[in-house]
Every structure is written in structure tokens, then in C-alpha cells.
């Protein structure tokens, strides 16, 4: 978090409240017109949901000094939120258990992987994104996820765990209980730095892009200060810092990467191959996907 | 003899505060459960009963309600079966052993629920202590699934709620005058006969209180089912959590919560009637 | 129905010996009271007879059969508790039927015997009640009926009447004795109330400090206490320190001398015990010897008798109780009188020998 730099520049203290996207969405919704939060880090579908409910305050790109350097796809509709990094759902694997790095989502379905795979629950980003990637591969669409559901159901039955918390994977990899799982490059990179046997691979079909956003709740009392804070987050040095330390794919195209970080974060070909799913499309369908997953895959 | 209404009058200031604290949020949420949630748009203004009828008509929801009640019944029965001998031992042993056992029983309550649930994960996981042991001694070839199903949940919840049952039973057993059991002994009743005709019926109030407590805690438990049940084994509490926190579908979540509350109240009421009959009106 | 025999019964708890070798026989159909101050071991002995406590030594025999290690359920006894100990979740009928059912009585036979037992305690009409719907006296009657219904060989009573009020207690004592005689069941009755023991017992066993002090009929215990403890414990009495002056003569600390039967050797330090009702008060000048003189300080009228508190000339106090109708009933405070002691009814015990029983 770019708090020290921001505090130094602006003389304003930043207070952090941790929580998941949906928890934050619920809080923002509950607090309505007078929000305790001035800036919310939240995933794009939840951001879309808040925008639809008119709970977000539009940003003014002209007032942000980093705006010209950003990936043009960074701003959401009506500039109600802005992507601050590019993440992905790719394949994490244990290089000690898997001789050759996986190259495709189908590697997770291989017979010799049976009982050595974990998949994410649909309520987590990696879960529904993996579902959509498999669905896509099998000829489904966002409006018809039956092929994806049918393909994943047997995999889910054989899976070691259907994880709900990314941290659950750490223990599973550490104990050698799983060899492969759909996961996030940034989390896998940090775990590898801790000495866990984890590497990241991007499937040739394209990993699924994740666009965590920042936004200002409509009820914020310090909207100008919040905009300045967001500008700091998007600036080249902060973006580079995120990428090198936390393996967050930079959204600021001016940012330069070390070789180590370049192997992990989406960039170049892997960035080009990313499949970005429209947040507006997902947010209206996610609830339906959850229902089907719970009834057919997880039951 | 104090008239019943006098007691109510004495307790009324506290009663009013408790009612306000507990009932107000409930009543505020009630209207929410009668609106429809439209994904991607939010809660609509139109009134509907569909959130309630869905639970009765949708097989998935019925299964979850059913398994929640089954889980509550199994955990209650297990804590009773395991807790009664323990409570009986504690009630009848020397003060030293009673103090020691009480400490052992209460000690887990000092530990955070999440820590205890994670403890069970390391014990019950595929590469956990139990499976490793069974595989080491060659009893099984591949791990048995002990997590993310009824088994894991029942084990974890039984462990977590056992102390409540034991403490309720202990005070009930200690309330039985020894004279009464000894009187039965002098009337030619053996140990088993005394236990089943005297001790057990006389502890009915404690059994009832302990069972209601454990049952209600079990069917409303969230943390342990989330950790030990996971996404593949949902119960009502985790379902309600998902509706609120993951699907942002507050109307459905609220209606599930009200149905859980109604089930709880019905069970408390029913259990009270049964126990009153069983104990000859002393409960 | 059977003879009960206790043979050198001992009970040792972690920190103390409570019963120190008690041997006692209760004849068939006899009612014996165990009487003594609290802590004397009487309840402990009763519980060992019932099998609720295991003796540390000695034996309990009923009809010659050793039941020392037999569990209570196989002893064929009935025990009536001070706390009644009724089964609160059962009706009166079921309470009384409990022991009968355990002995295989059922059907019309069961109903008949329960009704019979309830009839004996005048509760035949209350079989459907629960104990909590009854008074303390009624509950104790139920407890009694429950204990006698199976007609056990032995009836044991653990201070059964001490929770009842005085009037009810007097009435229950009579009823209880009548019933016991009618049934002829060998009985042991624990009490700390000497009047109660006197009223109901065939024989009384006086206990102190885990040992038998005297085991005899009520009359014998009253008239001929076996030692100083019994003398002091039974009835209300005046007690003085003194010394044996000559054979048959003791000298009180104040200097006065009395003739007393059965005294130890001259020179022995003794305690002299004289019951309130064992002295005659005479107007001065008095005829006959063996008198002390004193002044009446208080006069209390208690129905058929009058109680006087006197200051003896030597300074000690003397309490006397005399018939209100006789001449001695009409003295007033301040009058000087003679207190005449019956040499056969003053009890003298050596002080040194009594340390243990004090």
C-alpha cells in the first residue's frame, strides 16, 4: 500500500480496513450516503455492482496526473472506478511434483493429476474464472455455462479440496497434498518467495484477467483527497513497487519490470492473451452461476 | 409463594432492554425478506413471498435445511452420549479430580474458535494425523475423506460444544440429592436400575437445557461449518452467509435466517413439552 | 425378620476414626435407638448397616448371615431418611411400589400391597399425588410406607422425624412405634433427641466418640447411668466437682458433704451429678439428713411442676424441679430452704477416668 508516500506528500493519515470485495460492497451499501470509507479497493464485478446501485462517485481522469500513462482499458464505465493492477487466474503448480510446466487448462484434467488438484469455490474469483475458462474451451458462453459445469463436476469430485480462501492453498502446497490448482500469479509469487514449492504457468488458451479496482464511495466525505490518493496508487514508482514486491501486474504502461517479476506478472504475450470478462456481464450473472455451481458441482 | 406476574414485573426493565436490543434489528430485517433480489440491479421494491416459498420448493434448499437439522441432532446426541458419563464422573469423583476435569473441559473454551477448527483441519485432512496414521499402519491405502462432509463437521462441532453439554449436565447431576439414589439402592435397585429410573429422569431438566443449547448453537454455527464443511458441505448458517456476503442477496439471506429462527423456536418449544412429560412435571 | 448383630464395627475416614469398635445385638422384632450427640458415629453405624458405607473393620450380621460386604440392594432392608428422599418424579403410588416391583411383585398383588402400606400411614387416598404436592409430614409418611411396603428383614431410621414440628413429631413417634410393633420388624432408629429415644425404643444404645457408653432399656439408662457421660447426657442435671471424703460420703467444693451410694475410694476427685427432679425441697428447719441449704432466687411454674433456681450457701447454683401440687410447690423467691438429696439417685463418677467420654 502506498500509504507512507501518500501521507508524506499530503499530510493526511490513511486508515485501512481489511475485508473481501463482497464485504466491502456490503459495507458501502449499508453505509449509503455517509460512508466511513473514502477509497475502496474492490474487484471489478463488485465495483460494477456498486456503480449500478449508484453508490460510487465518478473520477475525473483529467484531474489524475497518471491517467495518460495508463492502459486505456483501465477506467470503468462513466469513470466510476479505475483498475489499479492486472492480475490473473492462471495455473499454480508444484515444480517438485510436476516435471513439465503445465501449458493448458486441460492439464488439470489429466488422469495422472487425479486426486492431486485443488480448485477454487465459485464464490472466489479463481473459482468462477476457472469455470468460465473451462466453459469457453468447451464451447459455452456467458449465457450458457452448462458445458463448463459439466466439465468441472467430475474434476470437483476428485479434487482434494474446493478452496474458499487462497491461504488454504499454501498449506496444501507446503504439505505436498496438491500438485496443481487454478490460482493467482501474485499470490503464487509471494508464496514462492517464502520458500514454498510453487511456480506459475499461463495456459495457452489464455489466463483469465483480474482487474482489481479502486473507487470512491458516493458517501465519502473527502473526495478530493481520495482522488489524490488514487493518483498516487496509479503513479509509475508505486506501480513498479507493487509489481516487484507483490507481483501485481502494472496498469501504468510506463512501469519497468525486472526479469524475475516479468516471469510472474501478466506482461507481453501473457498480458495480450488475457481474457478480460466484462464486469457488467459477470456481476449480473454471478448469482446464477453460484446457484448452479452449488447445486451441481459442489453438491 | 410469589405470583408469576411479580417476577415478570421485577424483571421487566431488563426484559424491555433485551427485547429492544434483540427484537429491533430482527423487525427491521423482516420487510427485506419480502422483496425480490435482482442480480446486477439490487433489491426491488415489489413485495413477494417467493423467498420463503423457494425454500420449501427448491430441493437444494430443502436438502440443506434437512442436513442442518440432522447435523444438529447428531451433534446433540453425541455430546449427550459422551458428556453424560463425563459429567457423572465429575459429579461423583473427589474434589481434586472434579477440579482437574472441570479445567480440562473448560480449557478449550479459552481457545479461539478458528484455532480449534484449524486444529481439526490438520487432524482430519487427507495428509492429516488421522489419515497418515491409518495409512502408516496399513489399514487404508488412500486417505478417507474426513473433511468437507458431515463427518468432519460433526467431529468438530461435537468437540466444540461438548463443554456446554457437560457443564449443564454436571449441575443437573449435582442437584440430585444423594439420599434419593441411596433410597433406591436400599429398595433393592441395582446400579443400572438406579441410573435409568432415578438419575436419568431427575436430570431431565439439565439434559433438556444442554440439548437445546447444543442444538441451537450447532444449527446456527458459522465459523466451524465454513472451515470444516467448506463449499461442498453447506448448512443453513453458511448458506445465509453466502446469500448475504457473496451473492449480496439480502432478501434470500433474511428469509433463510427467519426460517432458521422459526425452526429453533419450534424445537425449543417442542423439547420443553416432551421433557415436562418425561420428568413427571418436575422440569 | 431377624436378629441384627454388629461385631466390633470400625469406620475410619482419612483423618479420623469415627466408629471405634461397636458390638451390638438387636433382637428379633426389637426397636433399638442409637442416641448420642452429633459426631458420635450413630449415623455412620446406620449407614454401614444399610450398606451405604463400607466398614473399615468388623462385621454386620443379619439372622446369622454376614452381610458386611453385601450391596444395599441385596440386604433386604428399608431405610427412612431425614430428608424423606422420595422420588420427586414419581407419584406416591409409584414411590411405594418401587421396592415391591424390584422384588417381582406385580399386578393386583402390587396394588393391594401399596394400598395396604399407604393405609398404614393413613395416606390411602393420595396415591396419585406427587411428593411436591404434599406437606412435610405427609411426605415422611410416604417415605415410611415406601420403606415398610416390601416387609424387609430390617428397618432403619435416620433421624426421620427431626424435620417435623414438635406436635407432629410426638404424634408420629407413637404411630411409628405402633406400626413397628404391629409389623414386628427388627429396627434401628438413629436420633439425637433423648425424649424421642425414650418414647419409642425397646432399648437405647448411647454413643459418644465412636464408642458405646451404655446399651440398656430406657428405664435402666435413666435410673442407672453407666458412667458420667450417660448421667450428664440423659435428663437435665446439676453437676458439681468434689472429692470422696470417706466410704459413702463425698465432699463438694463448697465444703458441704453428702451421702451417696456407689462411690470410689476415698480421696478420688469426682463429679457429682444430681438431676433436677431428684431433690426434695423442705422448709427449714428440716427433718432428716443429707441436705444442702440455699436461698430461692427464681420460681417458674411449668404446668404440673415448678422449677426453682437456688443459690446454695457455698455459692453454687442448684436447679430443682418439684410437683406443683405438694407443699414444696409454694415457696417464693428469697425463702431459705433445705435441699434433700436421695443417696441412691445422686451419681458420682471419678473425673480422671472420664477424659475419653467427656
**Pair with the biggest interface:** A-B, 34 and 25 residues
Shape of chain A: globular
Q: In what order do the strands lie side by side in the largest sheet of chain C? A: 6-7-8-3-9-10
Q: Give the biggest beta sheet of chain A.
A: 5 strands, antiparallel
Order of helices and strands of chain C: EEEHEEEHHHEHEHEEHHEEEEEEEEEE
**How would you classify the helix and strand content of chain C by structural class?**
alpha+beta
Number of helices of chain A: 12
Distance between the termini of chain C: 37 Å
Low-confidence stretches of chain C: 353-358
Task: Describe the sheet with the most strands of chain C.
Answer: 6 strands, mixed
CATH architecture of the largest domain in chain A: 3-Layer(aba) Sandwich
Describe the structure.
The complex is a heterotrimer of chains A (299), B (283) and C (358). Chain A is of the alpha+beta class and 299 residues long. Helix content of chain A is 41%, strand content 12%. In chain A, strands 4, 7, 8, 9 and 11 form a 5-stranded antiparallel β-sheet that branches. In chain A, strands 1, 2, 3 and 10 form a 4-stranded antiparallel β-sheet that branches. The mean pLDDT of chain A is 90. Chain B is mainly alpha-helical and 283 residues long. Chain B has a domain at 49-108 and 148-278: Orthogonal Bundle (MetI-like fold), CATH 1.10.3720.10. The longest helix of chain B has 34 residues, at 59-92. The relative contact order of chain B is 0.12. Residues 353-358 of chain C have low confidence and may be disordered. In chain C, β4 (57-62) and β5 form a beta hairpin. Chain C starts with a strand and ends in an 8-residue tail after the last strand. Classes of the chains: A alpha+beta (299), B mainly alpha (283), C alpha+beta (358). At the B-C interface, α8 and α9 of B face β6, α2 and α4 of C.
